[in-house]
Amino acid sequence: MAEAFFVESQIPEQKTIEGILFPAVLTPNPSLPLDRPQFLDAVRAHKPHLESLLRSSGAVLLRGFPVRSAADFDRAVDAFGYDELPYVGGAAPRTNVVGRVFTANESPPDQKIPFHHEMAQVPKFPAKLFFFCEEEPRAGGETPIVLSHFVYKRMREKFPEFVERLEKLGLIYTRVLGEGDDPSSPIGRGWQSTFLTKDKAVAEERCLVAMQFELSIVVGQCCRAARLGMKLEWTEDGVKTIMGPIPAIKFDETRGRKIWFNSMVAAYTGWKDARNDPVKAVTCGDGEPLPADLIDECLKILEEECVAIPWKQGDILLLDNLAVLHSRRSFEPPRRILASLCQ
To answer: Is the peptide bond before 93 cis (omega within 30 degrees of 0)?
Structure first.
């Protein structure tokens, strides 16, 4: 049985929300021998149990298992059997480490990364995210998580007219990209790595305004194509990307509830660098600015409801991207968190 191998545990940072522990925490059974092959076999054999926990809680933390390196993490992600989602259209600077494993956002340690659903600003986004702590920070550096439907519920109660407007109009995201990556910025991914090409014509082909997504990126021997539904306006040294209007509120069909599926707070408070003004980075779907005081109130709700668990070396955190928003707190190095995006 899965329960004999994966023990459901409790840690002080967990919250009970609507009767469910958030996140679910699994540790090894101390009475059973454990090595990497056994762990990978257990993941494969007990995937239905793990997915059931993910469905009910929205997030699962695996702690204390024999995963020590990027290669170990790559094998663990592969054991779950999810298809990889290529990182096309995302804003964060990342580096491929091994296989389907990338660095998490490489922005400087003094910068916070606000709450967001991964790639909520593009039509095709990952269904699941894996994070792995290869090296725990000296201080700070947590990856706070919060349940999206609960944020929607609180925002709807407090600002019903605004939420109704968001549901009707959606959001427009605007970002200015340089040619190359800017590691000093949390949104510093250049257009060549964003669209995986150095050819402007190919970039435009991958950003046809038709709001559909077909993958066609070349990865090894595998060809996939990416039409992101994004408008491009070329400048002398880069490009302005305009995405939307796209929905700010989605319906989670698996759980039968509405979710706060957007990057509104992240864009408004965090999309700031030499090229970008965060106030202009996101607007209502009709182009009208968002109220600053409402953004502040939403940020307060996110912080009040979130769970922030200090990383331990070897931790694997699995998130349902439809259920959970995540962020990053500033930290004192060293810290190395790796990520993998799945369909």
So the answer is: no
Cβ partners under 8 Å of residue 222, min gap 6: none
Alpha-carbon distance of 323 to 147, in angstroms, equals 6
Helices 292-305 & 148-158 angle (0-180, nearest 10): 140
Q: What is the pLDDT of residues 274-301, one digit of tens each?
A: 999 999 999 999 999 999 999 999 999 9
* CA separation for the pair 169, 288 (Å, rounded): 10
The phi, psi pair for 31, rounded to 5°, reads: -90, -5
| pLDDT tens for each residue of 99-155 | 999 999 888 999 999 999 999 988 889 999 999 999 999 999 999 999 999 999 999
Instruction: Give the pLDDT of residue 132.
Output: 98
Comparing 2 with 54, the larger pLDDT belongs to 54
Type of residue at 191: W
Q: How far is CA 57 from the centre of its chain?
A: 17
Over the chain, what is the mean pLDDT?
A: 90
- pLDDT band at 229; cut points 50, 70, 90: low
For residue 147, which amino acid is it?
L
Q: Is 201 left (phi over 0), alpha (psi -120 to 50) or beta?
A: alpha
Choose among 300, 325, 322, 292: nearest CA to 162. 292
Three-state helix/strand/coil letters over 302-316:
HHHHCECCCCCCCCE
- Those residues whose C-beta lies under 8 Å from the C-beta of residue 333, and which sit 6 or more positions away, are 109, 137, 138
pTM flag (> 0.85): yes
Contact 187, 277 (CB under 8 A): no
- The CA-atom distances, in angstroms, between 179 and each of 58, 102, 164, 193, 195 are 37, 21, 38, 8, 11
